[in-house]
Amino acid sequence: xxxxxxxxxxxxxxxxxxxxxxxxxxxxRVLEATxxxxxxxxxxxxxxxxEDVLRRCWMEVPGRTLPQAxxxxxxxxxxxxxxxxxxxxxxxxDRCLENLVSLLDSCRRHAIAPLVVGPPPVIGAGDAHxxxxxxxxxxxxxxxxxxxxPFITTTLELADDPVWIEEATAGDGAHPGSGGYRRLADLVLxxxxxxxxxxxxx
Length: 202
What we know:
By secondary structure, the protein is an alpha/beta fold. It has nine helices and seven strands. The protein has a single domain (5-198), classed as SGNH hydrolase (Rossmann fold), CATH 3.40.50.1110. The termini are close together. The mean pLDDT is 96.
């Protein structure tokens, strides 16, 4: 049995944990609750779209894996893709899904087990952004089911969460504080996280 679990978390500012005064974000809280001895790397970058994540993923992740280890990748993206700039989306939904497929295909080639966390809502971006993000999340979920990859939904759950809404609104309109990130961590932990992390990667 492989004891060396190595996990890269890649994505945007929500992965990075921007806004958390405790500097743990949801990633740190999930790892704390998991209670396993793991080597982990937070590769979140503020403002990243799926295009950005795909561009840098296979430059950054392989150097953090080992041939004899149980290598894993947690991907969370899409919120920035659905932002409208000058009347156009930063990345349209079809292209975002193509980028996710490419990431998952590359995981298989690199023998890395993936898990996808759906895009959190950006409260300050308005209802139209929420509708686009929720639709994208549904399409991501269906895509992951078809590829037998765990997917954890967050969009509508957090859009209705009073702690997430209050903290994001009090901040920059997008990022919550420690309470909101705890809510997001709880969604991950209540999803397929424990099953995924307990089952040895193939």
